[in-house]
Amino acid sequence: MIAARSWWLAVVVFASGAFAAEPTAKVGPANGSLLVVGGGSMAKLWPVFLELAGGPDAAIVVIPTAGENVTGDDGSTKALRALGVTKIVQLHTRDPKEADTEAFAAPLRAARGVWISGGRQWRLADSYLGTRTLKELFAVLARGGVIGGSSAGATIQGSYLVRGAPSGNTIMMSPGHEAGFGFLRATAIDQHVDTRNRAEDLRPVLRAHPALLGIALDEATAIIVRGDRAEVVGAGRVRFFASPEASPDLLQAGTRFDLAERRRQP
Fold first, then answer.
1. Is 9 within a domain?
2. pLDDT for the residue 266
3. Is pLDDT at 7 greater than 80 in this prediction?
4. CATH code at position 226
5. What is the pLDDT of residues 131-167, one digit of tens each?
6. What is the pLDDT of residues 36-57, one digit of tens each?
7. What is the bridge-based pairing of β-strands 213-217 and 237-241?
8. What's the pTM?
């Protein structure tokens, strides 16, 4: 219990602004923060998300659109309600015309935190790219909020969309489905690395697009991003591929990575 409390206090110090985002960030958001999760258990990561959002009293929006059949409350919505969140709205459509309306995007204007659930990332891209909803997501970051997501909700945060093919999630590059939301610029993000043997799956993507930074996350593991600095939290490891052929920097909880310089921080 003491060890768990120490871990939690360390997260709170980080999330409360132990280091601020740089106004000239090249990769991550100049304001606000991102929580990028590799899938799997959220037991120790939900508190991190809520702390970044400002606590359980913050206004939260959940986007479950990556799921195959979205009916009723998403699992993420239920989990957040169980943690005491009461100001929560679930936002979902498959129609980009609806996503481009002021009425649909309105809940995002009050949000301090947005959670993007897992599933298939192409559904998120098809529904929200180029819409008012995506503009409002960037606005959440601009006013200091947090956007988090797991699995598909992690990959969509990069600029290049891996595993975006509607025909199957083993296809790394799919013409017509290669654009992510771009909260993390010049990046490609993979997930479920440890459980699905994906440690090297980003290599072909990086060879085809050598300007990209590759980020590959184990399950129950995340990076908290503010500006160009990322800190690893959770149970597993994160691989940062600075170039197509280089050995990745393999980081565990408590270590930091400079996304712009593409190197581990002291």
1. no
2. 85
3. no
4. 3.40.50.880
5. 999 999 999 999 999 999 999 999 999 999 999 999 9
6. 999 999 999 999 999 999 999 9
7. antiparallel
8. 0.91
Residue 183: CB partners within 8 Å, gap ≥ 6? 28, 29, 34, 137, 138, 141, 147, 157, 158
- Does 79 fall in a domain? yes
Domain that holds residue 180: 25-264
- Token pair for residue 259? 């996304």
Say how far apart CA 154 and CA 191 lie, in whole Å. Answer: 7
Residues 6 or more apart whose Cβ sits within 8 Å of residue 35: 45, 48, 49, 52, 146, 147, 148, 149, 222, 223, 224, 225
Task: Give pLDDT tens digits for 175-195.
Answer: 999 999 999 999 999 999 999
Which ranges in 21-111 belong to alpha helices (H)?
46-53, 75-82, 96-99, 102-105
Mean pLDDT (the chain) is: 92
**CA neighbor of 152 nearest in space, from 178, 191, 115, 179:** 191
Length of the chain: 266
Sign of the C-alpha dihedral, residues 261, 258, 20, 186?
positive
Tell me the two tokens of residue 203. 């290599």
Apex CA 136: angle with CA 105 and CA 63, to 5°?
60
